[in-house]
Design a protein that fits this description.
Mean pLDDT: 87
Largest sheet: 14 strands, antiparallel
Helix content: under 10%
Oligomer: single chain
Radius of gyration: 22 Å
Number of strands: 24
Order of helices and strands: EEEEEHEEHEEEEEEEEEEEEEEHEEEH
Length: 332
Amino acid sequence: MRTGILKRAVSTAAVFVLLAACSGAALALELIPGGTAVGIEMETDGILITGLNQIETDDGVQTPAADAGLLPGDVIVRIGDGAVRSAAELAQTLSGLDGSPVTVTVRRDGRLIQYTLDPACSSEGVWKLGLLLRDGVAGIGTITYIDPESGAYGALGHGVCDTETGVLIPISDGQIMHAAIERVVPGRAGTPGELCGVFDAGCSIGTIERNTGCGIFGHLHETGGGQALETVPSGELKTGPVQIRASISGEETRDYDAEITRVYRSGSGETRFLLAVTDETLLEQTGGIVQGMSGSPIIQDGKLVGAVTHVLVNDPTKGYGIFIENMLEAAE
């Protein structure tokens, strides 16, 4: 299970705003390990269809979107002649439905496809299209590295995907904010734990410019301090002791002992590895790896080698990591 961030969803029923594999080699760089928790907000590029609804009408159940051929994972970019980029724009458009056919343009596998939907009038007298949608995400994650020269950063170590469809969420804009961890829900066998934190959405410390299968990437407004460490090519990663740098209380960041027990290498150049937490303090406070620790940098022999990405749900003392080389290539 990814140790990732929370979701924000929008339903057309009432327009409620609720909130991979990479390959190749990267040159050795000196980067500042992160480990700090950050608040993450992302807006989708278009509106993602997460599901298709049935509509109860006086004439029985109707499914306009499904009947027209729309699919979960499609991204709505236009309704009629107007572009839609947010829940507010969608709400305004839906408020004008009167039962007349509506053209909906979606992006699917890089192609634009237009469909015509016949709205259904619900038993409450509201015209609907039968769609469940998402226009953004928000939650807590962890910075992996910062380039001291450019201010570029990488975080999470995995992509931000829609939980219902598994689709990597296309973003139009995003920001990160300072976060403070208020409490920890420890992980137990069968139940992943979670870092619970707060952040001020009005105080951006950086941009989010890319959402990839190997993490999110952008630039900080200020790089701050911290000692830069050398990154290493994948061939130097080995089993043995490492440190996980993470924040599990307030804004404090510290190193916790762990061990790489196995390294997996594919022919495409992807590298991932299995981790086991050995630090008694971390085990006592979190049970091991928990949600929100995605992106926590992993240091071996004083060098930055990768980041935490997943926890084993049946054994939270163990999880997976991504090699730093994969994140650096995804950032290009």
